Amino acid sequence: MCGCSTRALALEITETAVIRNPESAIATLATLKKLGVQVAIDDFGIGYSSLSYLRQLPVDMLKIDGSFVRELARFNPTVAIVQAIIAMAHTLGLAVTAEGIETSYQLSVLSALACDYGQGYFLSEPLPAEALRQVLPHLPG
Fold it and tell me: Which strands sit side by side in the sheet containing 10-14, from one edge to the other?
């Protein structure tokens, strides 16, 4: 065990996994939330979204799929879609992470759209645990 609090844990689940058995997913996610585990819907926007389930799911965050982030510079409608996802998530009290940030332009657009978090090679390549502890020394060992 890492010795960390459940508040330090985050479970990412894809839209598709939720839609397969929504009632069971809602119950399971509610149990995890009661334990203090953070829950994120991963790859949001590319699965079989059901907005009616989104408002029922006990989740903390939406993660915008990297395919939207890659298209930010090429397709103006993509900016509108990402903006709508961020606005909807914030209205529902959810944080938003954009996946696959690879350029300063993508980061600047997402920042302007008030995206809460980002991940991708522009920010950092994946790090092994020991290297991450050097960057963030307060992590549990």
Answer: 10-14, 38-44, 61-64, 95-98, 117-118
Q: What architecture (CATH level 2) is domain 6-135?
A: Alpha-Beta Barrel (3.20)
CA max distance for the chain:
46
Token pair listed for 122? 């522009």
Residue 52 has pLDDT above 50, yes or no: yes
- With a CB cutoff of 8 Å and minimum separation 6, the contacts of 30 are 58
Domain locations in the chain as residue ranges: 6-135
What pTM, to 2 d.p., does this model score? Answer: 0.84
Q: Which residues pair with 98 in a beta bridge?
A: 64, 118
Exposed e or buried b per residue across 78-95, where buried means at least 16 C-beta atoms within 10 angstroms of its C-beta: bbeebbebbebbeeeebb
| CA R_g for the chain | 16
> Of the candidates 132, 76, 128, 123, which has an alpha carbon nearest to the alpha carbon of residue 99?
123
Taking 60 as the threshold, does the pLDDT of residue 106 lie above it? Answer: yes
